[in-house]
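Moderator note: this is an archived Q&A kept for reference. The question asked for a predicted structure of one protein chain; the sequence and the answer are reproduced below.
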Amino acid sequence: MDAIVTRASQEALDAYRRQSHLSTPSEAVSSYDIATGMIRIDLRGGRLPGNGGAELEDLQGFISNGVLESARPILPAAGTKFYYNGKDFEDQYPDDAKGDRESRAERQNDGPVVVSAGHGWYYHHGFRDWRAQRDPSNGIIEDEITPGYADELRQWLIERSQVAAVRVRSGALDPHDRSGQAWWRMGGRYSLEVSHPDQPDLWNSLPTSTHPLRERDEDIRSRPHYANLLNARALFHLHTNAGSPLASGARAYVAEGRPEDYRLASRVCAT
């Protein structure tokens, strides 16, 4: 079984390298834990992203989706867990891990459900232009598709579960001043910049960063920061993970050690 998941993870890593033209780890070695159903993926050699932000998220998401899709006809994998030359996330990226722990801290939450449409346009400081976070795949741009799903989920939560539900990204049609893009295309970071100008920790959480993807990283971080501000009872991140055109169904990712979140995710995927 380990040989199967290692081959699948290496094939996904190689495909990502060809598609993205980025320097990445050169080897993916994987194993399957029968007790937990998790696939452990150890990225080795080559170059790791410098932080635990957008670049790492893209790399891991691509590999994870590829491995789980390849493994599905053979074994019922529950998910993936990544390591980096044998180190876990906390050891490899301690600063980012600290932020994750703060966002995941258990609270007695009684606020709304936050529905986060994945991605959105952002400013790339390397290329000095505004662009979508996702390249076209299977004829669509994910940044433009997720807002519709977010609207639909928000309405279901209100009508079927009788809970307050709010979005992060704007649904407005008028243009965002700096980019010229319609507001509904923009990442959540920019909506929060306008709605909460006196709380830059929400949308400008990396003020000293010089990384070209820093505003994209801030966009990713803005979603849980906003949910924490609202004392949200749940946060949904909606994505249309690019893959084979034949792929179908829903997949939920849940942080370890969160049984209530797991039960909620299971119910969502079952409907």
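Archived answer notes: Strands lie at 27-32, 38-44, 79-84, 113-117, 122-124, 129-131, 165-167, 234-238.
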